[in-house]
């Protein structure tokens, strides 16, 4: 893997995205999105995650993150491992999930095809962390992240997307997670 896509400096903010295998639209259901929210909250409280911005789309997650000490690669590894196991089990146990067998089959087939997995694969392998080392790139990624649901045609204004930090940035209302607002002139953590 190229060094371009690694967490090289724990003192920087990074934009990361990670997607469900085969871009499965898993996060159309609230209970699955809530697993991500709870996991991010846990990582903020217990794993030194600094969360600056976030957005859960139907098949993927965007984050702007930093760390208060714990290496970012460890935080991301633990976050993805925990959410993959928790979401896999949630799908398996959700008798009302009409796509259950299809999704589980896709995950098991992806796991078989990838020697890094034992039983199944939930997330695509990469995070593609991009260091945010200038105000221009920081705000470009922040705008992209918050406008993703608008561009997808789900809403008209970013702050209307519940599973995002846009409410924190565009209104005086607090969103679902404790975030650190990005100062327009500062890009280091």
Automatic annotation (TrEMBL):
SUPFAM superfamilies: Transposase IS200-like. Transmembrane segments: none annotated. One of its GO terms (biological process) is DNA transposition. Residues 9-148 form the Transposase IS200-like domain. Signal peptide: none annotated. InterPro entries: RAYT_transposase (IPR052715), Transposase_17 (IPR002686), Transposase_17_sf (IPR036515). GO terms for molecular function: sequence-specific DNA binding; transposase activity. Pfam families: Y1_Tnp. This is Transposase. It comes from Panacibacter microcysteis.
């Amino acid at each position: 893997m190229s060094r371009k896509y690694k967490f090289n400096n724990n003192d920087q903010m990074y934009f990361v995205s990670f997607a469900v295998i085969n871009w499965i639209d898993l996060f159309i259901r609230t209970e699955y999105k809530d697993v991500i929210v709870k996991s991010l909250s846990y990582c903020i409280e217990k794993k030194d995650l600094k969360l600056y911005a976030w957005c859960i789309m139907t098949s993927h997650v965007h984050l702007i993150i930093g760390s208060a000490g714990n290496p970012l690669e460890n935080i991301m590894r633990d976050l993805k491992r925990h959410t993959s196991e928790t979401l896999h089990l949630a799908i398996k146990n959700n008798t009302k999930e009409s796509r259950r067998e299809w999704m589980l089959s896709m995950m098991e087939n992806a796991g078989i095809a990838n020697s890094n997995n034992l039983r199944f694969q939930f997330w695509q392998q990469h995070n593609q962390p991009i260091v945010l080392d200038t105000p221009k790139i920081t705000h470009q990624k922040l705008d992209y992240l918050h406008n993703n649901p608008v561009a997808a045609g789900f809403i008209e204004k970013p702050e209307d997307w519940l599973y995002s930090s846009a409410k924190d940035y565009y209104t005086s209302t607090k969103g679902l997670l404790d975030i650190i607002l990005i100062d327009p002139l500062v890009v280091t953590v």
